[in-house]
C-alpha cells in the first residue's frame, strides 16, 4: 500500500464512498453516512481518512477489493469506478498534490464497455431507469429448452420409431442422441461460467471463445436458420389446422391458400407477442408448456383406461406383457428401416438445448441459469422420451386394420399374431401390408391411445407454436448482437435496441419478413389430391425435424419441394453450432490459458472433442449433401471475416492457441543447430516511428515477407520517466500502422539517453532465441555535412557496433530522403507533397522490366547474390532481369565468364547473365578526383602545415578530422571508388537496382566515412560515383572452397589496388542493355549490406577483409551515389 501524506489527503470525510467498510464488518463505530457521488473524484480518492485510519492504520490512496474494479461494463449513466494504476501508486508522492491531477480519469463508459447494455434514449434524463425484466433458471432456461426439445416428432414419430427399432434399440437411439446433446450441454455450461455472458446466445459463446471468424459465420447462419425455422414450425401448425378444417368441411379458400393465410396470421400473432416484450413472450411459453404437460397427462391416463372396441380395432390393448416382449425387438420396414435411418429421424428431436442460452442477455444470472436449466431440461425430456417409448410399446401392436368386424374367437387356428389372443384378427392386412393402424402404420397412435384426442392435437399446437416463437426471438437476439459487433457490412441498422430490455424490434421485423416469405413459398404446394390427411400419413411421407439452438424443435414440413430441400440444410446449420460449441470448450481447455477458469467443473475436454466430432458425423448421417452445403457456407463466411480482419479483441482461445504454438516452436528452435541451408536474412530496421520512413519499411518488408524476421526499432531519446507515458501510447499505434500497410513485422522501442546506446540495447535484446536479427538496416544520414559532427560520429559508431555484435549492415538512401515526418507535420505545398508520397510508396508498385545489377567484385559469402534472388521471387520484382558483374582481365574474359556462370549454376539462383569488367583498374578522371578533394576539404586536419601542439589540440577538439596520413593511406581506396562510379555510369545507368559489396570500415574514423555518396551531385548527367569494397562473409550459398578456386586466376586483377594507368578498353555498351522508363517516380534507392561473421573457408587474401553490399538506382541517365561505406 502507498501511504498518503496527511497534507495531501482529501479533507472532506463526505468523500468516502463504497457499499461497506471493513471496519464495519469487524465491528466498531458506526460508519459515516454515504455522501452523494462526486464524479470529479475517482473511486480511490473518495475514501476519507477516517475509513483508512480505522482499516489500515494509515491513510492511503489504495482501495479495498470491489467487483466494480473488475467489471468491464457499467449500467447506463453510472460512472465507471477504477482502482489506482501502478503508475499512480508509484509516483503519487509528488509535491503540491500533483498526483491528484494525474489520477483523474474519464468516467464515461466507452462503446466496448457498454456492449450489450440498454442504449440511452436521446433526451432521456431519468435518474431511475426502469429495471429490465430478467428470468431465472426455471422460466428462462429449463421451460424454454424443454419446449424446444419436445416437438411433433414426440407425438407423431416416436411411436413409429419404437415399432421399427423396438423398445431396446429405441432407447439406445434416444440415449445416443441425448449423449451428444448432454456433452454439448456440459460444454455450454463450462463456457457460460467462464466470465460474464451477455446477450447474443450461441453467437456470443462461440465468438468470444473461438474468435470473430468462426463466431461471425455461425452467428449469421444461425440467425437465418432460426428465421426460416419460424416458417417451418408455422407451416406445420398451419397444415394441422388446415387438415382439421378440411375434415370438418370448412376450408377458408382452397388448400394452397389456406396454409398461406393461416401461416401468415399465426406468425403475425407471434410477432405481436414478441414486440410486446420478453415478459409477454415468457408468459406465452409458460402457457404452451402447460398445454403440453396436460397432453402428456392425457396420454398417460389413456394408457390406463381399458380399450374400447374402436381402439382395440386399431391395435390398442392397454398394458400387456406379451405386447411389450414382441415390441422389444426391431421389425425394420420401408426404405428408412434401419438403425441409422431411425437415428437420423429421431436425433433432431433431442436438440433445442440452446433455447435458454439464446436469451442470455435476459437472464438474471446466466452463469447459474444456463448450466442448471439446460441440464435439467435434458434430463426431464430424456425421461419423457424413454417413458413414452416404453409405455406405447407395451400397449399397442405393430399392425391393426381398424375394422370393427375383424374380430375372432380366441384360440382360432386361422389367426396369427398377438391380437388373436385378444379377439382380433389382423392377419390378412398384415400379410398384405394393407394395415392402416398400429404402431408401425399410424402416426397418430398417441392421439388414439389418449383419453381425449383433441388434447394431443393441442399438444402438437403447443409444440409448434412454442418452437416458432422461440425461433423468432432467438433469430432477432442473435442477429442484434452480430450487428452490434459489425463483423459484416450493411447490417448495423438492425443492431439498435428499444425499451428496458433492449428489444431488437428491427430484428423481429426482419425475421418476420423472412418467415412470411418462406410461408408463401410453402403455399406453392402440390395439388390437394396429393396432400394426404394428417391422420393417414404413411411411412414414406417426409417429416423433417430441425433443431435450433434457440430453440428449435421439430416440425412437419409440407409436401413441398422447396421446404423439403432447405430443411436438411437448416438442420445442419444448427449441428454446425453444436460442433463448434464443443470444439470451443475443447480448444479453450487444451490451450491452458490462465483466463480459462469456468466455475462449472463437470466437463471433460476429451468429451467435448468427441461431441464436436460426432456432431459433424451426424451431419453427414442425416443428409450428406446438406452437410457439405452447410460447411461450405460456414467456410465462405469464415474466409470473409478473415479477409476483412475486424478490429475486435475478445481474448479468444484461438489467440491463446497461437501463443502456445509460437512459444512451443520458438523453444524448439533452441534445440536446432544453425545450418547454412536454413539461413534467413532477419532484419533489425532502425525506422524510428515506422510511418516516418515508409520506403525503408516497404523495401525490407518485400524480401522478408513470409520468409524471415523483421523488427522495426525505435529509440526514444530522453529521460526514462518523461518518455514512458509516450512509450505506452505509441507502441500500439505503430503496430496498427504496420498491419494496415500489410507489413509482417514487429515493432520494438527502447528509451535511452542517446541514439547509439539505444541501438546497442536493441541489437542485444531484439529477437527471441533463434529468431534473432542478423542484419542491421539503417537509413543514410543525408545531412552528414551540415549535422553536428558528434551525431555523425554516433552514426558511424552504430555501424561499428553492429559488426561487433556480429550483425550484417544495410544502409539505404533515397534521393528525397527517407524521413517524411517533416512533410507530414509541415503540410507542404501539394506538388511537393505528391512527390514525397510517391517516394514513400515507391516499393509498393511493380518495378517493371528493368534490371537488377549485381557487382560481385569480392566474395562476401553469397549475401550479395541472395538478396536479389529473394527480391526476384516477389511479384513486384519478378519481371526484372538480374545481371552479375565481376572484375577480370582483358585477356581472360571468356574463361572468367564461364567460371562465374558455372559457379552461379551451382547456387541454383537462376542468374545466367554475367559481364566481366576488364577496365575496373583504370585511373579515374581528373575532375572527379578534384571533386573528391573538395568534398573532404572541410573535414581535413591539414596537420602537415601546423605545429604539433596545434594538431594535438585539434585532434582533441575535433576527433572526426582526417589527418594527412589517413588521406594518403586511403587514397588508393578512394580513387578506386571514384573509378567504380564511372563504371556504374557506363553499365548500370538505367538499372532499377545496383547491388554491391562495400569497403571495409576502419575503427577510429568518423564523419569522413559519409562523404563518398556525395562525390557526385545528384541529377547531373555524366557525374561519377566512387565506391570501394573489401569484405568477407559466411558462405551463405555454400561451396566457398570452389569459389576461391574459380576466382584464383582472375581475382588479382579485380582486387589489386590501383597503382597506375590501367587497361584502356572501352566498355562494350551493347552488353549492358538499358532499362525502360517503367519507374516514373523521382525516387533513388540504395541499400548497403555487410556481412558480419568471418569465414575460415575463403582464401587467405580474403580472410582479413570486410564487405558491404550496396544497392543503387539510376534513372533517365542520371546516376546518384545512393550509399557508400568504407
From TrEMBL:
A Gene Ontology CC term for this entry? Answer: apical plasma membrane
* UniProt subcellular location: Apical cell membrane
In this protein, which residues make up the domain named Amino acid permease N-terminal?
46-116
Which keywords does this Swiss-Prot/TrEMBL entry list?
ATP-binding, Cell membrane, Chloride, Disulfide bond, Glycoprotein, Ion transport, Membrane, Nucleotide-binding, Phosphoprotein, Sodium, Sodium transport, Symport, Transmembrane, Transmembrane helix, Transport, Ubl conjugation
The answer to whether keyword Endoplasmic reticulum applies is no
Stretch list, region Disordered: 1052-1074
User: So which domain of life are we looking at?
Assistant: Eukaryota
Amino acid permease/ SLC12A domain location, by residue?
A: 140-684
Q: What is its main location?
A: membrane
Segments crossing the lipid bilayer: 167-193, 214-238, 258-277, 286-305, 339-361, 373-392, 452-473, 508-526, 569-590, 602-618
Biological processes per GO annotation: cell volume homeostasis; chloride ion homeostasis; potassium ion homeostasis; potassium ion import across plasma membrane; sodium ion homeostasis
Q: Which reaction is the catalytic activity of this chain? A: chloride(out) + Na(+)(out) = chloride(in) + Na(+)(in)
Q: Name one GO molecular function term.
A: ATP binding
Domain SLC12A transporter C-terminal per the UniProt entry, residue ranges = 693-831, 838-997
The membrane topology noted for this protein in its Swiss-Prot or TrEMBL record is: Multi-pass membrane protein
Q: What does this protein do?
A: Electroneutral sodium and chloride ion cotransporter, which acts as a key mediator of sodium and chloride reabsorption in kidney distal convoluted tubules. Also acts as a receptor for the pro-inflammatory cytokine IL18, thereby contributing to IL18-induced cytokine production, including IFNG, IL6, IL18 and CCL2. May act either independently of IL18R1, or in a complex with IL18R1.
Q: How does it assemble?
A: Homodimer; adopts a domain-swap conformation at the scissor helices connecting the transmembrane domain and C-terminal domain. Interacts with KLHL3. Interacts with IL18R1; this interaction is increased by IL18 treatment.
Give the UniProt family note. Answer: Belongs to the SLC12A transporter family.
The identity of this protein, by name, is Solute carrier family 12 member 3
**Which species is this record about?**
Neophocaena asiaeorientalis asiaeorientalis (Yangtze finless porpoise)
Gene encoding this chain?
Answer: SLC12A3
Amino acid at each position: 500500500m502507498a501511504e498518503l501524506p496527511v497534507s495531501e489527503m482529501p479533507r472532506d470525510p463526505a468523500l468516502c464512498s463504497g457499499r461497506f467498510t471493513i471496519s464495519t464488518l469487524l465491528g466498531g463505530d458506526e460508519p459515516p453516512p454515504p455522501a452523494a457521488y462526486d464524479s470529479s473524484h475517482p473511486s480511490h480518492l473518495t475514501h476519507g481518512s477516517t475509513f483508512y485510519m480505522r482499516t489500515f492504520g494509515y491513510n492511503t490512496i489504495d482501495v479495498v477489493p470491489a467487483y466494480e474494479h473488475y467489471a468491464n461494463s457499467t449500467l447506463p449513466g453510472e460512472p465507471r469506478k477504477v482502482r489506482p494504476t501502478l503508475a499512480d501508486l508509484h509516483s503519487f508522492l509528488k509535491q503540491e498534490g500533483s498526483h491528484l491531477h494525474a489520477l483523474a480519469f474519464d468516467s464515461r463508459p466507452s462503446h466496448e464497455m457498454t456492449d450489450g447494455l440498454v442504449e440511452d434514449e436521446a433526451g432521456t434524463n431519468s435518474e431511475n431507469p426502469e429495471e429490465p425484466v430478467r428470468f431465472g433458471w426455471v422460466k428462462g432456461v429449463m421451460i424454454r429448452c424443454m419446449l424446444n426439445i419436445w416437438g411433433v416428432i414426440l407425438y407423431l414419430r416416436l411411436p413409429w420409431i419404437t415399432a421399427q427399432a423396438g423398445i431396446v434399440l429405441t432407447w439406445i437411439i434416444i440415449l445416443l442422441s441425448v449423449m451428444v446433446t448432454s456433452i454439448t450441454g456440459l460444454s455450454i455450461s463450462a463456457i457460460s461460467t467462464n466470465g460474464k455472458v451477455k446477450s447474443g446466445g450461441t453467437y456470443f459463446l462461440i465468438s468470444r471463445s473461438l474468435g470473430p471468424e468462426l463466431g461471425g459465420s455461425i452467428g449469421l447462419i444461425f440467425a437465418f436458420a432460426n428465421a426460416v425455422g419460424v416458417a417451418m414450425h408455422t407451416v406445420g401448425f398451419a397444415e394441422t389446422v388446415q387438415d382439421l378444417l378440411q375434415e370438418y368441411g370448412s376450408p377458408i379458400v382452397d388448400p394452397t391458400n389456406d396454409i398461406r393465410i393461416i401461416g401468415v396470421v399465426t406468425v403475425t400473432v407471434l410477432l405481436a407477442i414478441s414486440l410486446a416484450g420478453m415478459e409477454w413472450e415468457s408468459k406465452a411459453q409458460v402457457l404452451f408448456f402447460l398445454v403440453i404437460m396436460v397432453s402428456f397427462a392425457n396420454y398417460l391416463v389413456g394408457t390406463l383406461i381399458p380399450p374400447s372396441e374402436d381402439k382395440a380395432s386399431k391395435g390398442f390393448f392397454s398394458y400387456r406383457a406379451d405386447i411389450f416382449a414382441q415390441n422389444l425387438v426391431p421389425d425394420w420396414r420401408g426404405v428408412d428401416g434401419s438403425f441409422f435411418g431411425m437415428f437420423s429421424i429421431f436425433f433432431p428431436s433431442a436438440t433445442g438445448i440452446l433455447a435458454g442460452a439464446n436469451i442470455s442477455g435476459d437472464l438474471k444470472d446466466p452463469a447459474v441459469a444456463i448450466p442448471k436449466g439446460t441440464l435439467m431440461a435434458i434430463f426431464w425430456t430424456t425421461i419423457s422420451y424413454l417413458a413414452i417409448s416404453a409405455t406405447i410399446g407395451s400397449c399397442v401392436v405393430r399392425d391393426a386394420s381398424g375394422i370393427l368386424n375383424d374380430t375372432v374367437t380366441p384360440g382360432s387356428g386361422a389367426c396369427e399374431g398377438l391380437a388373436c389372443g385378444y379377439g382380433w384378427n389382423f392377419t390378412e392386412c398384415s400379410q398384405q401390408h394393407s394395415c392402416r393402424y398400429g404402431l408401425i402404420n399410424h402416426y397418430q397412435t398417441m392421439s388414439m391411445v389418449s383419453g381425449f384426442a383433441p388434447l394431443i392435437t393441442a399438444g402438437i399446437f403447443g409444440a409448434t407454436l412454442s418452437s416458432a416463437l422461440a425461433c423468432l426471438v432467438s433469430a432477432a437476439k442473435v442477429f442484434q448482437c452480430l450487428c452490434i459487433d459489425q463483423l459484416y457490412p450493411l447490417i448495423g441498422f438492425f443492431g439498435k435496441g428499444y425499451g428496458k430490455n433492449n428489444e431488437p424490434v428491427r430484428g423481429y421485423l426482419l425475421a418476420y419478413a423472412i418467415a412470411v416469405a418462406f410461408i408463401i413459398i410453402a403455399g406453392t404446394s402440390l395439388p390437394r389430391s396429393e396432400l394426404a390427411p394428417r391422420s393417414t400419413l404413411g411411412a414414406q411421407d417426409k417429416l423433417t425435424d430441425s433443431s435450433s439452438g434457440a430453440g428449435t424443435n421439430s416440425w412437419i414440413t409440407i409436401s413441398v419441394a422447396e421446404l423439403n430441400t432447405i430443411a436438411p440444410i437448416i438442420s445442419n446449420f444448427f449441428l454446425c453450432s453444436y460442433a463448434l460449441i464443443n470444439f470451443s470448450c475443447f480448444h479453450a481447455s487444451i490451450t491452458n490459458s490462465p483466463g480459462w477458469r469456468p466455475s462449472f467443473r463437470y466437463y471433460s475436454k476429451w468429451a467435448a472433442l468427441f461431441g464436436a466430432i460426432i456432431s459433424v458425423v451426424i451431419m453427414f448421417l442425416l443428409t450428406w449433401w446438406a452437410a457439405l452445403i452447410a460447411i461450405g457456407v460456414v467456410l465462405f463466411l469464415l474466409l470473409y471475416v478473415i479477409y476483412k480482419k475486424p478490429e475486435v479483441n475478445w481474448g479468444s482461445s484461438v489467440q491463446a492457441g497461437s501463443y502456445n504454438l509460437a512459444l512451443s516452436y520458438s523453444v524448439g528452435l533452441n534445440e536446432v543447430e544453425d545450418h547454412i541451408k536454413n539461413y534467413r536474412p532477419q532484419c533489425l530496421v532502425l525506422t524510428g516511428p515506422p510511418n516516418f520512413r515508409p520506403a525503408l519499411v516497404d523495401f525490407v518488408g518485400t524480401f522478408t515477407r513470409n520468409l524471415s524476421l523483421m523488427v522495426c526499432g525505435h529509440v526514444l531519446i530522453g529521460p526514462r520517466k518523461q518518455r514512458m507515458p509516450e512509450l505506452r501510447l505509441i507502441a500500439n499505434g505503430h503496430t496498427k500502422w504496420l498491419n494496415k500497410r500489410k507489413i509482417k513485422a514487429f515493432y520494438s522501442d527502447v528509451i535511452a539517453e542517446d541514439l547509439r546506446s539505444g541501438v546497442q540495447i536493441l541489437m542485444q535484446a531484439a529477437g527471441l532465441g533463434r529468431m534473432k536479427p542478423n542484419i542491421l538496416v539503417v537509413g543514410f544520414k543525408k545531412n552528414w555535412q551540415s549535422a553536428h559532427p558528434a551525431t555523425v560520429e554516433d552514426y558511424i559508431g552504430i555501424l561499428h557496433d553492429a559488426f561487433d555484435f556480429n550483425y550484417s549492415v544495410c544502409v539505404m538512401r533515397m534521393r528525397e530522403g527517407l524521413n517524411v515526418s517533416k512533410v507530414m507535420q509541415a503540410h507542404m505545398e501539394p506538388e511537393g507533397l505528391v512527390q514525397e508520397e510517391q517516394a514513400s510508396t515507391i516499393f509498393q508498385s511493380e518495378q517493371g522490366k528493368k534490371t537488377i545489377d549485381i557487382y560481385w567484385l569480392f566474395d562476401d559469402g553469397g549475401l550479395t547474390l541472395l538478396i536479389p534472388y529473394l527480391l526476384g521471387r516477389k511479384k513486384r520484382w519478378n519481371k526484372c532481369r538480374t545481371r552479375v558483374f565481376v572484375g577480370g582481365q582483358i585477356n581472360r574474359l571468356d574463361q572468367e565468364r564461364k567460371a562465374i556462370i558455372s559457379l552461379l549454376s551451382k547456387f541454383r539462383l537462376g542468374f545466367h547473365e554475367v559481364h566481366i569488367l576488364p577496365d575496373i583498374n583504370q585511373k579515374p578522371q581528373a575532375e572527379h578526383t578534384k571533386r573528391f578533394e573538395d568534398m573532404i576539404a572541410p573535414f581535413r586536419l591539414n596537420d602537415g602545415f601546423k605545429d604539433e601542439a596545434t594538431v594535438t589540440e585539434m585532434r582533441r577538439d575535433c576527433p572526426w578530422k582526417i589527418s594527412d596520413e589517413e588521406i594518403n593511406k586511403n587514397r588508393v581506396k578512394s580513387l578506386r571508388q571514384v573509378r567504380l562510379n564511372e563504371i556504374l555510369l557506363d553499365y548500370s545507368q538505367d538499372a532499377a537496382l545496383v547491388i554491391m559489396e562495400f569497403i571495409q570500415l576502419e575503427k577510429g574514423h568518423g564523419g569522413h566515412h559519409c562523404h563518398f555518396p556525395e562525390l557526385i551531385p545528384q541529377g547531373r548527367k555524366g557525374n561519377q560515383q566512387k565506391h570501394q569494397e573489401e569484405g568477407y562473409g559466411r558462405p551463405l550459398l555454400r561451396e566457398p572452397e570452389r569459389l576461391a578456386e574459380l576466382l584464383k586466376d582472375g581475382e588479382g586483377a579485380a582486387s589489386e589496388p590501383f597503382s597506375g594507368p590501367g587497361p584502356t578498353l572501352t566498355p562494350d555498351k551493347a552488353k549492358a542493355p538499358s532499362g525502360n522508363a517503367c519507374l516514373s517516380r523521382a525516387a533513388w534507392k540504395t541499400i548497403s549490406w555487410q556481412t558480419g561473421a568471418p569465414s575460415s573457408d575463403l582464401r587467405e587474401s580474403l580472410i582479413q577483409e570486410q564487405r558491404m553490399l550496396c544497392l543503387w538506382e539510376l534513372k533517365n541517365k542520371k546516376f546518384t551515389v545512393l550509399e557508400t561505406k568504407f
